[in-house]
Structures are given as C-alpha cells and as structure tokens.
Amino acid sequence: MTSGLETLITPELEALKGQWRATTWSPPVSASDIRKWAIATWWPQTPPPLHWDEAYAAATRWGGIVAPPDFNPFAWPIVRIPLAPLPSPKGVKLTSLNGGQTETYGVPQRPGDVIAERVRVQDFRERQGRFGLMLYVDVETEWTNQDAVLVRRRISTFVRY
Amino acid sequence: MTQTLHFEDVRLGDILPAWTRTTDFMHWNRYAAVNDEFMPFHMDDEDGRRAGNPAGAFGMGNLRFAYMLNALQAWIGDAAEVRELTCRYRLMNQKHDELTVVGRVVAADLVGDEGQVRLEIDVTNQEGESTCPGHAIVILPRRAAT
Fold it and tell me: Which domain holds residue A90?
C-alpha cells in the first residue's frame, strides 16, 4: 500500500525514461522449445502442426516451422542477468503487476534464429486507485532477429502500488 | 489447421469462434515452465493474497494473451498472420475459471495490398465478466492472390 506518499515517481525513474538498456541476445531458437511452448499454451488441445510438424509446415507459406508470435526465446538463460528493478521511493517496497500489453509482430521466429532484445522505460503516470497511489509504467521491449528485422515490439504496462 | 480465412470472406460484425479453457495450476505451471515465469503470486496462495487477490494465487496475464493469439490463429488459419494484439488486464484469472476468448470484427480494410481486419477482443470468465478487453489486427490473404 502507498498511503501517505505524495508520489511514486523518483528522479531515478525520470532519468530512465527513453533510455535503451544494453542489447542482449537469446540462445538460438530451437524447434523443441517452440513445440513445448505450443503444447503449454494450447493445452489440453494438440497444438497446430505449423509449430511442430516440419513436413506440414514446409508446405505452408512459411516454408517451415515457425514459433507462435508470443514465443519467448529468452526463457531459461544459463546466466541470469537480473533486470534492474524499476526505482521506488526510498524504503518503499512496491507490488508490481502486469496491467496490460500491446504487441506488434514483424517476421516470425524460426528454429536457429538468434533474437536481440533491447528494453526501455517509455513512459509513466500515476493516479489514485483501489490500492492507494498507483504508478503505471510503460516498458517497451523490441526484438529483432539476426538479420536486424523486427520480430516483435511489446509495450507492457506495469502497475506498481 | 488447414482452413484459410480470406479477406473477402469477412464481414463487419462477424464473431470470432469461441475458444475456451478452464484454467488452474496445471495450466499455469505448464506455462510457467516454458516461459520461466515463476512469480510467487502465480505459485502460492499466500503470496497471491499478499499481492491483493483474496482468493490466493492467480493466473498469468501472459497466458491469457496466448489464449487470444491462439483463438485468432484457430480462426484465421496458417496462411494469415496476427499483426497486433493489445489488452488491459481488468480482472484476475482465478483458479478453475472457465475462460473464453470472444471477439467481433469492427473494421476490414485494404491497406495497400494487405487485407487488414480489426477485432474487438476479450477473455470472459464463467460469469461473463470481461477480464482483459483489447483489440487485434490480423492480416488475411486475398482470394484473388491465392
């Protein structure tokens, strides 16, 4: 809860606005990871063969297996680089929830792709809500493939209170 | 999944075929496993309550997002593509919720050579409540072009 606070916007948060963090790269996308992602998100239904059947997928306009648009190639890194936490007022521990997202898709991910990611705080605003003062932070995440072609742009709105 | 929805087949007001899942830890844990998403409030009732959900642990917004993408894919087929999807998480996904992706065509336009179709989209629960309203844009092949 944030009762008693006048603002959740700190100078540190202001300084982050618009600044891209260093680019990171995914491990190569694997067909097996695509298959498992499709199974998990379509469960208990058999997922579309476009995501696991090479012969089927080869006959489609895509010419081979492609990942579902939301497939995350950055899951399960060997070395975890902790995300720098969004700044909070000193001494305040905020809960952060996923308030919503917009995803725009470019080319699909395919087995063997290596995806580059860069992230920045795009914008923020605050208002009173059911948990007191609530901060809405828009974080932009851009993915491009090894050919520098856009794969996905996501704007996530994190609700912090 | 071999059917193809063509741009010329779509009319304003067309309804997205319903796509339903009844979710609980079995679904959430599968998703956590592939997305490496082990937030405590998705795993543990006490942590869920601490995060403000009296019923305890709750499902991932990202999983409902996947459900919307899947419902769209099931409707448009493999020759089409989802270009954009947006939603705002309004209600939490509680254990044993019956979630249904619902949608309706609100625009269909040719943009250059692309057949762009815009839908209002949402995931409703068993009470018919809206949990994550938003919109989607899909690109459909044109009949003359296939």
Answer: 11-26+85-160
